[in-house]
Amino acid sequence: MIDMQMIVDSMRKNGKIYKKMLEIAPKELGIRNKIRIYKATDMNGYFWAIFSVSKKSKLLMKDVQTFEAIYAKLVIFSDHNYKYKVIFIDAPICSKAEEGFKDNGWKIKEKKCV
Known about the structure:
Blueprint: H1 4-13, E1 18-24, H2 26-29, E2 35-42, E3 47-54, H3 61-78, E4 84-90, H4 95-103, E5 106-110
Parallel strand pairs: 3-4, 4-5
Antiparallel strand pairs: 1-2, 2-3
């Protein structure tokens, strides 16, 4: 599973530093998915929605719609929109799903499965 420290380290390599980062439990959003959700604020004051997913099976197009629904619940829960949406994936991803994420404004960070 990808934890907060791995996310912070990965983003720091890309020049992104956060002044505040909170983990939101899936139960708070009323979902049962095994996912880690983080709400972060960068140094410019922009909000980031960061999802961390670890699966054994391939991520498909239906998963894109699931994550969009979870993102919509996150927006309602936190009462504001997010400037950036990032998903850390520790699973193989279908090419159509990858395109679907990019079309919906997601930035994909993959940790290659062994």
